[in-house]
Amino acid sequence: MYSDSKDINRTTNIEIDLILEGIFNKYGYDFRNYSKAHVKRRLLNRLTTSKLNSISELQHKVLHEPGFFEIILRDLSINVTEMFRDPSFYLALRNEVIPILKTYPFFKVWHAGCSTGEEVYSFAVVLKEEGIYDRAQIYATDFNHDVLDIAKKGIFPIDRIKEYTYNYQASGGKQSFSDYYMANYDSVIYDQSLKKNLVFAEHNLVTDSVFAEVNLIICRNVLIYFNKDLQNRVIDLFHDSLINGGFLGLGSKETLQFTTKANSFEIINNEEKVYKKKIIKK
Amino acid sequence: MSYKAIVIGASAGGFFALKKLITALPSDFSIPILIVQHISPTSDSYMAKHLNKLSGLTVKEADEKEIIKPGHVYIAPPNYHILIEEDCTISLSTSEKKNYSRPSIDILFETATFAYGEELIGIVLTGANNDGSSGLLSIKNSGGYCIVQDPDEAEVDTMPLAAIKTSNPQKILTIEGIAKLLIKINNASKKQNKIKKKKKDIN
Ligand SMILES: C[S@@+](CC[C@H](N)C(=O)[O-])C[C@H]1O[C@@H](n2cnc3c(N)ncnc32)[C@H](O)[C@@H]1O
């Protein structure tokens, strides 16, 4: 009986490889090097909610119904985010990165995997308070256009404002968080001035190339969904996208330590995962 | 039967139950242990540090893509789910809460089932919700070994009762009983491994 469940598991794994291959060929989104455990869990959940019997059935549906692919894309891209997530990360940026950015007359920031934009607006607030927003060009990218549409609007549900206000204060906020938004009945709209130097664009970290040459890349809680190989490839991409001495900020559980580029970066803050690209001497 | 991993889920009252269980295991206990203890998203990694001091085993917070090693106890970090890859490494995730929890016991148990199949032991301890029940059921269905803390002993019996009802575990035991059983299983699989090794050496 139990060798049965082993066999079923093997078959499921084969089916998953096939559906990912199919999605890549048909839609160009490449999930083949995402964390297998993550992809499997999300696809099996979708199987249950769609009342299908096997991944093969799911494959048929996803290849024949582009609308259904949108659902799968949403399943596989985890969009959970918040304003000033991990406040200590923003504090580290204020203390250790902003002073360097201040030495540039003009600089570029890239938020990769920005989801619905909370992280982008949070850092825009920091730049504003530090008096260097006007010198910044901010790119915010994600491979999921639905979340980008939400991010562009800059409207968020009101129910999390209390939590965000707490985060803002813990992140070293200098004013009152309410200075940066207007509250409506059930939603909140961010101050228009935060949007001025912001560009949202679709970009896939797996299949697209260098996006721009920038001074700071913030990519948090995206790499954890990739396998080791893909993590290495994306870090290479970041390395190529940074100017000499540019900064990279990762999620609190993501590290450069075991990647192939570990020696090409200097650790600025180990706890908060802030790194600096070493200067390459010509 | 030899086992490759032990997964444990605990919620309210779990800290003391886990402390008792982990400190009862000898330092040569080799089967790796992975733990989800429900915890506030903003708490620090005190628990892993504290248990590491008290136990002869290496107790640590689970790291992203870490390789699961014998003699180690891994605890899910606050605000992250922990998933076991089939190559026996750990992945973390910030996906939606499950059963109002992140980390979720079910997610650990379900992914561990895929990785270890029947060579997995699942344990549900004290707690005030239903997390872990469906995960324990998937361990049971794949031929794994399921243990639930005796609801009479548990500080909060909701979670053990739910797990017993859903998955009809092989054993319902006190913490002391669980520790004894795990030690027995660990020693048995050590012996088995030795015999296997000898056979290999002879061949
Ligand atoms: C958990 S969110 C992180 C949001 C934000 N950075 C934060 O930490 O709060 C992960 C985001 O990565 C995006 N993502 C996943 N794979 C991607 C890829 N290959 N290219 C670009 N974005 C990707 C998802 O769409 C999702 O919005």
Topology:
The complex is a heterodimer of chains A (282) and B (203).
Chain A: H1 2-27, H2 36-49, H3 55-64, H4 66-76, H5 87-101, E1 107-112, H6 118-129, E2 136-142, H7 145-153, E3 155-157, H8 161-170, E4 181-183, E5 187-190, E6 198-202, E7 214-219, H9 228-241, E8 242-250, E9 265-269, E10 274-277
Parallel strand pairs in A: 1-2, 1-7, 2-6, 7-8
Antiparallel strand pairs in A: 3-5, 4-5, 8-10, 9-10
Chain B: E1 5-10, H1 14-23, E2 33-37, H2 46-54, E3 58-61, E4 72-75, E5 81-84, E6 90-93, H3 105-116, E7 120-124, H4 133-141, E8 145-149, H5 158-167, E9 171-173, H6 175-202
Parallel strand pairs in B: 1-2, 1-7, 2-4, 3-4, 7-8, 8-9
Antiparallel strand pairs in B: 5-6
Helix pairs in contact in B: 1-6, 3-4, 4-5
The complex binds S-adenosylmethionine.
Structural summary, described in words:
- The complex is a heterodimer of chains A (282) and B (203).
- Helix content of chain A is 43%, strand content 18%.
- Chain A has nine helices and ten strands.
- Chain A has helices spanning 2-27, 36-49, 55-64, 66-76, 87-101, 118-129, 145-153, 161-170, 228-241, and strands at 107-112, 136-142, 155-157, 181-183, 187-190, 198-202, 214-219, 242-250, 265-269, 274-277.
- In chain A, a hairpin with a 4-residue loop joins strand 9 (265-269) and strand 10 (274-277).
- The longest helix of chain A is centred in the first third of the chain and has 26 residues, at 2-27.
- The radius of gyration of chain A is 20 Å and the shape is globular.
- In chain B, the strands form two sheets. In chain B, strands 3-4-2-1-7-8-9 form a seven-stranded parallel beta sheet, with helices on both faces.
- In chain B, helix 1 packs across helix 6 (175-202).
- Chain B is built from six helices and nine strands.
- Chain B has a single domain (5-202), classed as Methylesterase CheB, C-terminal domain (Rossmann fold).
- Chain B is 38% helix and 20% strand.
- The chains are: A alpha/beta (282), B alpha/beta (203).
- Chain A binds chain B through residues 1-2, 5-6, 9, 13, 35-38, 40-41, 78, 80, 221, 223-225, 228, 231, 251, 253-255, 258, and chain B through 63-65, 77, 80, 83-86, 91-96, 107, 110-111, 114-115, 117-118, 141-143.
- Bound molecules: S-adenosylmethionine.
- The site of S-adenosylmethionine has 21 residues of chain A, from loops.
